[in-house]
Amino acid sequence: MTSTSTSPTPARGPADHDVRAQIVAAATEHFSRYGYEKTTVSDLAKAIGFSKAYIYKFFESKQAIGELICANCLREIEAEVSAAIAEAAQPPDKLRRLFKVSTEASLRLFFQDRKLFEIATSAATERWQAVIDYEARTQQLLRDVLQEGRQSGDFERKTPLDETVMSIHLVMRPYLNPLLLQHSMDSTEQAPALLASLVLRSLSP
Amino acid sequence: MTSTSTSPTPARGPADHDVRAQIVAAATEHFSRYGYEKTTVSDLAKAIGFSKAYIYKFFESKQAIGELICANCLREIEAEVSAAIAEAAQPPDKLRRLFKVSTEASLRLFFQDRKLFEIATSAATERWQAVIDYEARTQQLLRDVLQEGRQSGDFERKTPLDETVMSIHLVMRPYLNPLLLQHSMDSTEQAPALLASLVLRSLSP
């Protein structure tokens, strides 16, 4: 394995991406024990046995490490949702799965993995780039399903597509955003199916 | 003014409901300065110049005082929403106003009046009786509008009414519940109209 890094300091020892992965793994472990907010880059450096300066060669801040952990988590949710949608043949069924699987995946990744919850809430509160990108991709996924349904004749075409995307995304928000999801626990069993049905009625041609 | 109280101790001086109102007014003032969570019944007693025991003759706990403040606030939201609905002639317009005015009234009463916010979040988190009753009445208001629209032929009748009420209430939740509303500030301008339109499309016969 050779380093192709353009890092300001020539890599000595392992390739840069290995060091980054090592830092992220140690940070995830450390955040899960002591919390994301409370941990400093100094704490991380001490725990890994690196100098603080060395960590700063790979990540410009603690948030940059948090962003990578957060982005990985959001990618995992997306992968699950995309796979579930791909399995369905018809646009209405794709939409039902979008509601169901994105709620289930968000619940599991944000809450059952408690170590991610604090990062996820910081990310959502401060609107990190990873979150903005995730929301844009989720809206794109929704738009693709809607367009497919408009072409197949399953969905109405009178309402501007932008409006349909925006309003359905608002309906899904309490089950996608960890800040709202933490207060929506009573309804995560029933809501995705109920809301998908309501949305499908709103889309009938 | 005479007291008709059945309080265990005979009222001496002002009528009971005057004393209750005096306690609630002082408590509201005190909560707004020092916060609901931090204030104790002893603090309130000191501030009003009553004994703690005297306050306990009128309210069994701090929460009982908070519940009354909260119930008054929720009644105010309801009164505004009901008045706005009564002004509209047609069920679709009633539904639009239900979304718009309940969001506006919730925003104003929970947030602009910061003193109520902490009580509102405690009430919503702990699901005080005032909140449960408010949700039931909000659902009843929604049900009345839906039933009127079904009778007038404005709304479809195939979906069970209970399901329609439940799913529309879920759509409105982020704008009614202060725990969700505090994280929905970016969308309070656009969302009520967008969501009302989506819901109206879902109700078309």
UniProtKB/TrEMBL annotation, chains A, B:
In the UniProt record, does the keyword Transcription regulation occur?
yes
* Matching PANTHER family: HTH-TYPE TRANSCRIPTIONAL REGULATOR BETI, HTH-TYPE TRANSCRIPTIONAL REGULATOR RUTR
Q: What PROSITE patterns does the record point to?
A: HTH_TETR_2
Any Pfam family hit: TetR_N
Looking at the record, the residues that make up the HTH tetR-type domain are 17-77
This protein is called TetR/AcrR family transcriptional regulator
Q: Where is the signal peptide?
A: none
- What SUPFAM superfamilies does the database record attribute to this sequence? Homeodomain-like, Tetracyclin repressor-like, C-terminal domain
**Where DNA binds (residue ranges)?**
40-59
Say which domain of life the source belongs to: Bacteria
Specify whether Cytoplasm is a keyword of the entry: no
Sorted keywords for this record are: DNA-binding, Transcription, Transcription regulation
